[in-house]
Amino acid sequence: MTAVPDGSAASLAPRGPNALGRIRLGDPVVAVWLAALAVTLIGWIVVTADGGEFLTRSTITGILQNSVALGLVAVGQSVVIVTGSLDLSVAYLVSLGTLVAAEMMASGSVLTAILAVLALSAAVGVANGLIVTGLKVNAFIATLGMAFVLRGYIENTYTGPAGHVPASFRRLGYDRIGFVPVSVLLLVAVAVAAWLITRRTRVGHHMYATGGDERAARLSGVRTGRTVVLAHVLCSLCVGAAALFLAARLGAGAPWAGTDARYDLESIAAVVLGGTALAGGRGGVTGTLGGVLVLSVLDSIFNQLSVDPFFKNVVRGVVIIAAVALYARPRPGWASKRPRRGGRGRASQGGSRGVPGQERSA
User: Fold this and answer.
1) pTM, two decimal places
2) High-pLDDT (> 90) share of the chain, %
């Protein structure tokens, strides 16, 4: 099983100036960032024609600010999806995380609250991973069940906002360096850490191998169960970071913080827009951040134009479907150059030691 970096066509298609240009434009990561640029330019034209102003410091700050929470959740979601799994419990975990953080900050130290939220998140990630790998429950059903468990606890325990976040911690949600929110640095730090884990470590190689072909990875010596559990833990830790950020923004815990923003479906949408295959084995954090930016820019455009929420969802749905359809198209030269798998019990070249970003044919 040969592991290939994001945009496998770039490493397998013929070399040359013209081919290189086509390859880069066909790379999902490049495509989604170009799409983000195109959406920004189109939004600027449309908003300006409507008599508004789009590319202002306040608008750019708002787009970056709105990208943080979704970006943190989507980065975690991309890690778990790469392994061929999924997490639908993220929205309720965000809500519970804000409540735990605000309540503990009101009665204790900020550091204790941060550690408690991350510990809670890790525990939920371990539970999700063990249900998927140990009980052999489909990830969709397992994490949906966990979402209902978290929802039941929240609805039984809280009737509204709870706790209080001190002003010192709220600076995470509101301070800026120029026009760049400080919270963006948190997103960048988490994204870089996730990228390094998935692309520069043995564990990351195993994640792509597991998502690419779990049976072949297992026969090659990869502990696929442990890999999936670890991916769920990393995902939940990213969600915990998003909960801490939202607690800083809101100033209190909110039972609706994650569900009203639909972070479960929104994060999956961002991951898909970024070129990560839901079947696993292909994609990565870089493309996911591009997908988050596309969604945030679209939201800003719709808000400035006062677009009807129904039409807003229709456009977002069309964009996601178009992106998936585009990525699913076969790439020239890829089918003939795809590595062939060996016989029974034998992975193709490289086993589980390939370079990060293992891909399967789109």
Assistant:
1) 0.85
2) 73
